[in-house]
């Protein structure tokens, strides 16, 4: 049996706009998904969640089944496998749990089958899986989960950026939603109001480009200010909600340098960046407002082999 893991992520800038070709910056966080794979002689595929059932919801099963199909098509091998998933990420909350499940499963299958896929190839295959399940996706989640660190995706080119030296405080609303549904709602809004929505998406792209510069200059206050502006524009696309907005304002009131929702929105998570002791104050304030909270940092490690037995 081989166990591989991959981190979750937050979007510093650019979610939704990235689906329309604008750049986005995502940051891997120190919370991981673990996929354990044992090959079987029969062609049977069994998938289970380790520990508790909530660790691997049925949506994750869909991504795993598609990952298996992609590997079978590539290797022309109708293998069977037992796949077990354990997750430190709340599912369907904008923290990239589906991408982390997908790439860690592909990596574990690749290692078991001895095909030695590189992380970049795994990220690309993971992107195909996300497109097949969601209809529309960007390569961001699978790339950042496969390679770790802070990543800019621009016109399908991806590169790593400097790390912000900050605490990342994540607040989960506990509300699960379908990424595909929210993406479709933005597509409808764009179809109905193209002259307005296209400008908003382009402005989010400009925020990401400026954010890239602020990161390279180590200007964390600038990064925070741009996160706040980006949140406002996501709200105007109709993808935030009152719970996320409340948590974002609580975090800012407690001294966060910036706070925004992350991922598809309409539930899921928000996060804030803060330095020193204000990280604890921000965490306490958003926990009191009803969020499940954890404080984390940037994860340098992307895909990792954890155990071979
Ligand atoms: O909520 P998540 O982690 O699935 O993120 C979705 C982000 C989108 O930009 C809306 C879609 C994508 O694939 O980038």
Structure, explained:
This protein has 9 helices and 11 strands. The protein is α+β, with helices and mostly antiparallel strands and 309 residues long. The strands form 2 sheets. Strands 1, 2, 3, 4, 5, 6 and 11 form a 7-stranded mixed sheet that branches. A 4-stranded antiparallel sheet has the order 8-9-7-10. α1 links the parallel β3 (45-49) and β4 (80-87). α1 (58-75) packs parallel to α2, α2 packs across α3 and α5 crosses α6. The longest helix has 24 residues, at 194-217. It binds (3R)-3-hydroxy-3-methyl-5-(phosphonooxy)pentanoic acid. (3R)-3-hydroxy-3-methyl-5-(phosphonooxy)pentanoic acid is lined by residues 15-16, 18-19, 94, 96, 137-138, 140-141, 179, 183, 263-264, 268.
Q: Calculate the mean pLDDT score and round it.
A: 92
> Which value, in Å, is the CA radius of gyration?
19 Å
User: What amount of the residues lies in strands?
Assistant: 25-35%
Structural class: alpha+beta
Task: Tell me how many strands there are.
Answer: 11
In this entry the ligands are: (3R)-3-hydroxy-3-methyl-5-(phosphonooxy)pentanoic acid
Number of continuous helical runs: 9
| Helicity, as a percent range | 40-55%
The end-to-end distance, rounded to whole angstroms, is 5 Å
General shape = globular
Query: What is the N-to-C succession of helices and strands?
Result: EEEHEHHHEEEHHHHEEHEE
Largest sheet: 7 strands, mixed
Low-confidence stretches: none
């Amino acid at each position: 049996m081989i166990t591989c893991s991959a981190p979750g992520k937050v979007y510093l800038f650019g979610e939704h706009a990235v689906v329309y070709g604008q750049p986005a910056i995502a940051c891997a966080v120190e919370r991981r998904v673990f996929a354990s794979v044992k090959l079987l002689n029969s062609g049977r595929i069994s998938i289970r969640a380790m520990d508790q059932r909530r660790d691997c919801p049925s949506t994750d099963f869909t991504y795993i089944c598609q990952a298996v199909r992609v590997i079978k098509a590539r290797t022309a091998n109708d293998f069977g496998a037992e796949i077990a998933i354990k997750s430190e990420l709340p599912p369907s909350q904008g923290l990239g749990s589906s991408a982390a499940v997908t790439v860690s499963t592909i990596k574990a299958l690749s290692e078991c089958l001895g095909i030695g896929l590189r992380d970049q190839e795994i990220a690309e295959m993971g992107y195909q899986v996300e497109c097949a399940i969601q209809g529309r996706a960007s390569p961001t989640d699978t790339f950042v989960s496969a390679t770790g660190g802070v990543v800019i995706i621009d016109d399908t080119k991806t590169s790593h950026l400097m790390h912000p030296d900050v605490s990342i405080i994540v607040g989960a609303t506990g509300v699960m939603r379908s990424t595909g549904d929210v993406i479709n709602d933005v597509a409808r809004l764009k179809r109905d109001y193209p002259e307005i929505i296209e400008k908003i998406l382009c402005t989010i792209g400009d925020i990401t480009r400026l954010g890239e510069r602020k990161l390279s200059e180590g200007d964390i206050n600038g990064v925070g200010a741009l996160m706040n502006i980006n949140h406002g524009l996501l709200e105007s696309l109709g993808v935030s909600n009152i719970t996320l907005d409340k948590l974002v304002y609580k975090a800012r009131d407690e001294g966060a340098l910036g706070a925004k929702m992350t991922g598809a929105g309409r539930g899921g998570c928000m996060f804030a960046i803060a330095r020193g002791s204000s990280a604890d104050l921000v965490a306490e304030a958003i926990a009191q407002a009803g969020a499940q909270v954890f404080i984390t940092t940037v994860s340098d490690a992307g895909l990792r082999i954890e155990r071979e037995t």
